[in-house]
Amino acid sequence: xxxxxxxxxTWDIANRWRTDFLDSGSEWEQxxxxxxxxxxxxxxxNFDEIxxxxxxxxxxxxxxxxxxxxxxSLYWASKxxxxxxxxxxxxxxxxxxxxFGEDTYNDVPILARFRWTDITAGSAHWEQAFSTDGGATWxxxxxxxxxxxx
Length: 150
Prior knowledge:
The chain contains no helices and eleven strands. By secondary structure, the protein is mainly beta.
């Protein structure tokens, strides 16, 4: 079994995000999502589409494993912008996946971190955090709790 094999099938996603990803005082907003994920390349690739029905948009994630480096690269695309965001890269250790990459948010250079934790056969937790100081401090700004559909 490969790292992202757990995330295949259909999932209900409980989302909670900050209304401003860089403002620690911003409000939290909750909304549902539905993800359909599939395994490819003998487990060395994973693809999912997530739809946010109350928000009116969707996104795609492509996860690719590089056997030479032992790292995954995760690529996010948003239906709202029609663009592919810069990847985050990393891997799993002791059941926790951590992935980092450089990006911008509202024209501010950031370091992005994605983290997968609490992975079971029927659930998983994902979170996103941004740093504006090269990783010295982090602001968590989006949580997803996934529950597998029967």
